[in-house]
Design brief:
291 residues; alpha/beta; 13-stranded mixed β-sheet; 33% helix
């Protein structure tokens, strides 16, 4: 497959038609380059809050409600674009109020045949839990697609090895992210590269970029798109298949060979994924030594 991963900048929107045109341009560009799978970043849907004006967009709680209320229309738009251009799309995640409880951070995966499902974030950052009161959502899922087996770990989730291990059957793990500082970007990127090493798979990181004075939640964003694999045979020695230019909006592309993933898992120079279970008895039998 060919994957396109976004460094996506938010815009102030004056109309729904403006948003439709923007998404159409982004998807058309990637599809025109032959991409099969498009990955948008975490909280990229927050620009929808601007449709309700500055007072709403600038208020943490009100912006959640504004975005959540528009996601049904947003899903219809993404389904149409996925089918029109014949591509899989991981839409930008959004705070979704599902029922009477607190909102979850949800990313929707759209298939060109009309199929759709979502992945919720599992572990909240300090800002999400302390300031925004976003809560963990539903369980991890493994999506079986015509492109291969796909998992999604949203931003902070990729920094936790056991979540990655739960998706060890995935050929590709998508990592939509939103990071304020360069250090945050590198935490997520190091997590993405680590999960690619451990699972001997490919990870695809998308980033929110640019500054937005109108928002408390996504006011400052640093990052770029990147695609990573295990630094082993069939992959680059650095483990970096492709990376964009820091903070420059646009797509980063990479070709992913599923046979190379299968080969490195079966006969790599190292077999991290196969040897994972050997950790447990050794990690649970630590000897204290005083020297």
């Amino acid at each position: 497959m060919k994957v396109a991963t976004a460094a996506y900048n938010l815009d102030w929107l004056d109309s729904w038609a403006q948003y439709e045109d923007k998404l159409d341009r982004w998807v058309a560009e990637a599809a025109g380059q032959g991409a099969d799978l498009l990955v948008f970043p975490e909280y990229g849907a927050m620009e929808l809050s601007t449709l309700d004006g500055a007072e709403v967009a600038g208020n943490l709680e009100h912006s959640i409600r504004a975005v959540s209320d528009r996601m049904e229309a947003g899903q219809a738009l993404h389904r149409r674009l996925s089918q029109t251009y014949g591509v899989y799309i991981l839409g930008a995640s959004a705070p979704i109020t599902d029922g009477s409880g607190r909102p979850v951070n949800r990313a929707e995966l759209y298939a060109p045949g009309g199929g759709q499902d979502h992945q919720d974030k599992q572990i909240m950052t300090r800002f999400e839990r302390d300031d925004w009161d976003i809560v963990p959502g539903g369980p991890l899922k493994l999506f079986e697609t015509s492109l291969g087996k796909i998992g999604v770990l949203i931003c902070y989730d990729i920094e936790f090895p056991l979540l990655g291990r739960a998706l060890s059957e995935a050929d590709v793990i998508l990592v939509p992210s939103c990071t304020e500082a360069l250090s945050g970007y590198w935490r997520v990127r190091i997590g993405a590269m680590s999960r690619a090493l451990e699972n001997q798979c490919v990870t695809v990181m998308a980033s929110l970029v640019g500054n937005n004075d109108w928002s408390e939640a996504v006011d400052m964003n640093t990052g770029t798109g990147g695609v990573f694999g295990p630094p082993d045979k069939g992959f680059p020695s650095t483990g970096v298949l492709s990376e964009g230019t820091m903070n420059r909006p646009g797509w980063t592309y990479a070709d992913i060979d599923l046979s190379a993933i299968a080969e490195v898992r079966a006969d790599g120079h190292v077999l991290n994924r196969t040897h994972w279970t050997e950790q447990s008895p050794r990690a649970n039998s630590i000897t204290i030594s005083r020297v």
